[in-house]
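lol forgot to send this yesterday, sorry. C-alpha cells for the thing we talked abt
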C-alpha cells in the first residue's frame, strides 16, 4: 500500500510538471504585449510641432489610416490682421452691460487681442469685441489656439457656433474667468445644488456644448482644470491669466468631442443627438452679474491695460482625412 501511494504521488508530480511546461511553452509562443513605458520627461510646450495638433508631439493618437491636413482659412499666426479670414459681429448679450464694437479688437505685437474698456453709458458700459472666422468647418477636425486671458471678472472664450439661440450647434472649447468677484467665490452664498463653481474658475476650463432645435436645447459640460494636468506639464495649476494655455477640440464625429489642454486630453462630451451644422471659430470677452459667469468687474478695472485684455498668440485648424 505504501508503495502504491508513493507511485501515485510521483505520477502527480510528473503530470503537474508537464502541465507547467506546456503552459510556459504556450506563454513563450504567445507572450502578453508589454505595457508601454510612461514617459516622465517634462513636456516642452515651446517645442511642439506646429504642423500638427499639439497632442501629436506628446501622445499621437491619430488613427493609423488618417492624416491631419491644415485648414489655412482657419489658421493664423497673427502677424497682421487678415480680413480675409476674420470678421467682427456686433450683437450684444441680453441683460448684460456688454457693448460689442470692432474698435476693441485687432492684432498687435504678433497677437490677436480683445480688450474690455469703459464705455460712457450707464447701461452698456462694458465695451468689448467678438471675432469670427469667415470659414466654417465640420467633423472630423481639430482646432486649437494659444491664449492668455484678461484678469477681470469676465468670460474669455474660444468656441464654435452656427445658428441662433433656438436653432444652433455650439461647442464651447473654453469659457474662462480668471478673476471672479469675491461674492461669487464665496461658497457660503450658494444655494444647495448650485451647479457652477466660480471659486474654481481661475484654473477651470469650462467646456460645454449646446444643440438647439426649435427652442429645445440639449446641453452638458466637462469642467477640466489646469490642476488636473500631468506633473510633466509646465502649465499644471497655472491660472488662465498667468500663462498662455493651448486649448483645443478634436471634433471626432456627429456625437463626440475630445477637448485638449496644453497637449493633454482634457475631458470629453458625448451628445444625445447629432451635430448637423458646419461651425465657425469665435472668440469674445464678456461679463454678466450672475455667478455662473463670475459676476461683474469693477468699472475702474476696465481702464487698466495690464489686466483688461485677452490675447491669442496663434490658432491652427486641421481636417482629418484618409491617407
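and heres what i got for the seq, position by position
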Amino acid at each position: 500500500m505504501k508503495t502504491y501511494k508513493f507511485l501515485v504521488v510521483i505520477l502527480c508530480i510528473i503530470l503537474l510538471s508537464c502541465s507547467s511546461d506546456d503552459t510556459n511553452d504556450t506563454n513563450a509562443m504567445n507572450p502578453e504585449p508589454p505595457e508601454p513605458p510612461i514617459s516622465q520627461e517634462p513636456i516642452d510646450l515651446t517645442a511642439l510641432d506646429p504642423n500638427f495638433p499639439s497632442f501629436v508631439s506628446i501622445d499621437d493618437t491619430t488613427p493609423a489610416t488618417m492624416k491631419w491636413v491644415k485648414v489655412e482659412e482657419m489658421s493664423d499666426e497673427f502677424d497682421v490682421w487678415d480680413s480675409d479670414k476674420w470678421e467682427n459681429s456686433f450683437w450684444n448679450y441680453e441683460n448684460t452691460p456688454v457693448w460689442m464694437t470692432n474698435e476693441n479688437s485687432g492684432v498687435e505685437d504678433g497677437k490677436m487681442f480683445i480688450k474690455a474698456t469703459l464705455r460712457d453709458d450707464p447701461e452698456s458700459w462694458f465695451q468689448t469685441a467678438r471675432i469670427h472666422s469667415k470659414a466654417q468647418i465640420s467633423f472630423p477636425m481639430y482646432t486649437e489656439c494659444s491664449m492668455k486671458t484678461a484678469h477681470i471678472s469676465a468670460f474669455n472664450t474660444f468656441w464654435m457656433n452656427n445658428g441662433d439661440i433656438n436653432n444652433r450647434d455650439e461647442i464651447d472649447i473654453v469659457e474662462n474667468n480668471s478673476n471672479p468677484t469675491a461674492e461669487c467665490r464665496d461658497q457660503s452664498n450658494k444655494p444647495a445644488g448650485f451647479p457652477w463653481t466660480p471659486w474654481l474658475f481661475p484654473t477651470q476650463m469650462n467646456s460645454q456644448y449646446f444643440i438647439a432645435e426649435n427652442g429645445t436645447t440639449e446641453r452638458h459640460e466637462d469642467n477640466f482644470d489646469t490642476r488636473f494636468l500631468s506633473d510633466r506639464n509646465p502649465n499644471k495649476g497655472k491660472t488662465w491669466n498667468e500663462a498662455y494655455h493651448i486649448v483645443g477640440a478634436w471634433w471626432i464625429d456627429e456625437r463626440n468631442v475630445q477637448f485638449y489642454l496644453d497637449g493633454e486630453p482634457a475631458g470629453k462630451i458625448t451628445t444625445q443627438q447629432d451635430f448637423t451644422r458646419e461651425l465657425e471659430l469665435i472668440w469674445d470677452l464678456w461679463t454678466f452679474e450672475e455667478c455662473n459667469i463670475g459676476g461683474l468687474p469693477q468699472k475702474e478695472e476696465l481702464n487698466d491695460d495690464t489686466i483688461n485684455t485677452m490675447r491669442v498668440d496663434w490658432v491652427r485648424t486641421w481636417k482629418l482625412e484618409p491617407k
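The longest helix spans residues 2-29. anyway ping me if u want another try
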